[in-house]
Automatic annotation (TrEMBL):
This is SRPBCC family protein. It comes from the Bacteria. It comes from Robiginitalea aurantiaca.
Length: 165
């Protein structure tokens, strides 16, 4: 089974505090998730983020198929980074690190997602055909939603890469 890494960066012309307050609030996930995914928080988003927090969602990773996704917040450094890990959901492994770094014109957001697909060889075959495209679409949508909400920093393009580890 292959391990993949998604690496994305985006700059926003906002303070680290504003970035943290938005990104660490699970209720804002729906604002930056494509509508076609039917993202819905079921429980666990009623408190500020803390290690050990479990958040349950319903999401449609494949049109017409809804699944439950349970994430645990495993690490939190307020204003700097947090890590969420899938405990139940569509991936065999999902480990997502979110970093916020102060820069002269605002903040640099960096996401590093390590993930594995289920179904062995079938999952590996589905990656280039479906999964990779879907993840690119989700992160491109997120980039646009954040830019629409907060603006962008001229001269600092968003970067995005998926590689096999």
């Amino acid at each position: 089974m292959k391990l993949y890494r998604l690496h994305a960066t985006q700059t926003l012309p906002i303070s680290p505090e504003d970035a943290w307050n938005f990104l660490s609030n699970p209720e804002n996930l729906q604002k930056i998730t494509p509508a076609h995914m039917g993202f819905q928080i079921l429980s666990g988003a009623d408190r500020p983020m803390y290690p050990g927090q479990l958040i349950q969602y319903k999401v449609s990773p494949i049109p017409g198929i809804r699944t439950r996704w349970v994430s645990e917040i495993t690490h939190v450094e307020p204003g700097s980074y947090f890590v969420d890990e899938q405990r139940f959901g569509p991936y065999s492994l999902w480990h997502h690190k979110h970093f916020i770094k102060k820069m002269d014109q605002g903040v640099l957001m960096e996401d590093i997602v390590d993930y594995k697909l289920p179904l062995g060889i079938l999952g590996s075959l589905a990656h280039p055909i479906f999964v990779r495209k879907q993840l690119v679409g989700i992160f491109r949508h997120r980039e646009k939603a954040l830019t629409d909400l907060f603006g962008s920093v001229p001269g600092h393009p968003t970067t995005f890469d998926i590689q096999t580890l």
